[in-house]
Amino acid sequence: MNTNDKLQNNFAIGEVNWKPGSDSRLEKLGEGFYNATNYGFGNVGIVITNEGVVVIDSTISRTGGKAIVDEITKMTDQPIKYLIYTHGHGDHVGGASVLKEQGATVISHRNVIERFNRYTKLRDHHVAINSMQFKRKQKIKNEYIYPDIVYDFEYTFELGGKTFRLLHGKGETDDATVVYIPEDKICYSGDFIVWSFPNIGNPNKVLRYEREWYEMLDRILKLNPKAIAPGHGRSLLGNEEVQACLSDTSAVLKYLHEECVMHINQGSSLDKMLHEISIPEELANSPYIKQSYGCLEFVIRGIHRRYTGWYDGNPTNLSPSPINDVNQAILDLIGNQEKIIESTRYFVSEGNLQLALHLIDLILTENPSDKEMHAFKGELLEQMSEVSNNLFFRNFYTVSANNERELAE
Ligand SMILES: [Zn+2]
Known about the structure:
The structure is a single chain. The radius of gyration is 24 Å and the shape is elongated. The chain has two domains: about 240 residues, Metallo-beta-lactamase domain (Metallo-beta-lactamase, Chain A, 4-Layer Sandwich), CATH 3.60.15.30; about 90 residues, Alkyl sulfatase, dimerisation domain (Serine Threonine Protein Phosphatase 5, Tetratricopeptide repeat), CATH 1.25.40.880. It is an alpha/beta fold. The strands form two sheets. The protein has an eight-stranded mixed beta sheet. Strands 9-10-11-12-13-14 form a six-stranded mixed beta sheet. The chain contains 16 helices and 14 strands. The structure holds zinc ion. The site of zinc ion (ZN) has 7 residues, from α3.
């Protein structure tokens, strides 16, 4: 560590310190308060006090963890005293071992323990679903750093004249912590804010909590923070931006919760809900809830799944025949595969690739190794991926298109 490095990091509040040659950057939220973004997947909070350093999250990997320790060492001689997990997702705990080696005491909500146990038990499943979601083969080592201190509702400690209030809430996970430092009105929100539509109803993941999510956002709003470091993306600076983000995200979740509950009470099917519920006009263009990660369709599915069972109201589906038998009966009735292919091509020409996919699946029922149909399906999925602005649709379609092409070889 040299003095020049220390001075370089002594920049003004609200300023961003870009690292040359990379998109890693330290954002300053207040004196001693930083949001380290793009040091790996997942932001890291750094709070430097005159009695030691508190780190909030650790990125997805040890490489990210090391980059964070390097950055801290450039700024201060103080030891790293605590590492707080905002929740137990891999992109927030992956670099924890590096911080632990530095002597950090790890604090989290109690449910993080159960999450780590579950990830270990379902390791192969998680490798598969995350490889699809993030479009690259995941390396999950299951070397979790379990917390030294856990809490249930709220946990407070002091260091160097700063109070660290850890508030538990549920949202994207059931083990979430928001860190608030009242002296400076600074908040580290974890994934309650990620610069995207909330990721509820993730296609392959366990239930998430839309009501508790907006309740926590409202709770943060009442604290009136002057800056928020989110779990991903750039910091929110100043009351105006903070309030706009919290209230837009809270409002959309509250609206969707109420709409879905109303539909469920009216006996609406999921299909009806998916096609009738939309985002209120005043929130549709909010920059804080773009549907780039979470999206309306998945949130509706998530809320419906949370409050109801799997039965869709049609007694035919209470104990259905195997789907292949159903498709085969329909195929026998049509009796002419050419007719289906012709119809598929018609839907493609009309731009309705989704309907075309359903028809291709019908043909694949009869001949699961029909290479031409796998190639055709792969081609359509590729096209669908290209026109989507949402991470899930893009990645699921791209990975599946590659799988279809392999089956076509
Ligand atoms: Zn995250």
